[in-house]
Amino acid sequence: MEQSIRQLNPLTKLTFTICASISVFFADYQYALGMFLILLMLATLCRVVKQYLSTLAKTLLILILLMFLLQALFYPGKELIWQWSFLSIKKEGLLYALSLSSKILVIGGSILLFFLITPVKDLVRALEQRGLSPTFSYVILSTLQIVPQMEKRSHQIMEAQRSRGVETEGNLMQRAKAFIPSLGPLILSSIVSTEERAITLEARAFSAPVKKVRLYVVSDTQLDRWLRILFVVLLIFFIIGRLIQ
Amino acid sequence: MSEKRNSIKDDFTLMAMMLIPIAIAVNIIGGQIAVLLKLPVYLDTIGTLLIAILAGPWVGALTGLLSNLFNSIFDPVFIPYAIVSVAVGLAAGFFSRAKLFLTIWKTILVGILIGLLAAIVSAPITAYLFGGVTGSGSTLITGVLMAAGQNLIEAVLTSSIISDLADKTISCLICFFIIKSMSSRYLSKFSLGENFFRES
Q1: ipTM of the predicted structure?
Q2: Is B18 an 8 Å CB contact of chain A?
Q3: What is the pTM of this model?
Q4: Residue-range domains of chain B with CATH
Q5: What is the Cα Rg of chain B in Å?
Q6: B57 CA to chain A: closest CA distance, Å?
């Protein structure tokens, strides 16, 4: 089961994510929470549930807690549930927070799940097979490689600058003055190496207008096509059904 | 040489496309360094601004969009804010075409304008999609303002303006100083680089 989900074409998984995210805007919080349970189930089937929950906790949980606090206390409403001096929690605020946070859970959760079960390489390759220009795929893939590389370099540069007397602790002015010596050399040396990379790509006929043969291919099966149609049709029926009510 | 109109194709040179990953990385690392140095500003759009100033509004907009999409892999919150990054990239690029990044004072002015733009575009997203919460210090300001009686969108707008104004102005100034130290050899590889050649 896990393999059959992971082997689906990335665009199929993307269609599911988008349809699920759109659907929560047409229903109440119970539906959204149910959809989130489905996402959790999919995560368990694909055996990424631990990473899924821990990333969700680090990113969305704090947001949702703060939002509950803000909306419960300050949302204009009439039904008081709890009061203490000037603070009051109103039922309308709680309901609003619940509806909003369930939507955030589904939208954010489906995007996160998508990226956990889809290697970016596959996504880019699938898009390329649909007509994305190779330059774009290069941009996306090299970003994934370059960011960790540059992060390491920036640590090295900060260490080097510290050893030259740049103060990274102290009052605000001192710390602020450390910013440009930390980021500047990184940017300038990166621009220089970009020129080298551009020359290297051109030397390998990157921009040559000839037909190229691909080494890595992503499959798009009949099942994929049917699933995509199914998701969109379900969404349309769901929206029409909710609008009629 | 007569002034030629910048076409989109001129902006998207191979060199500019290859700078996009670097700009995205600079966005991320700038933000990390700001956290490391415990500075009260985000400084997470320096890459987008820099590439928009050098290669025009469309490259800047694309970089902003991709930067948010890339960040969203690890934190899905970033996706709706992509439109803010796109707006910032477009604005910076158009201001750069109008040669507004050539002196410190014009850069500060433009930084203020971009800061206002960022606040205005991001406030509705924060207010209506995330209930006023951003996960940064500005949420505290929002809370205080709401306790004082402002409604959600007013409070979010005010706290966004407070945090984005300083952030974008300082980021634009940082870009100004970085471009000042770029040699003509590299500036010439970008469509708007000519504007920054130093009279030697």
Answers
A1: 0.81
A2: yes
A3: 0.86
A4: 8-195 (1.10.1760.20)
A5: 17
A6: 17
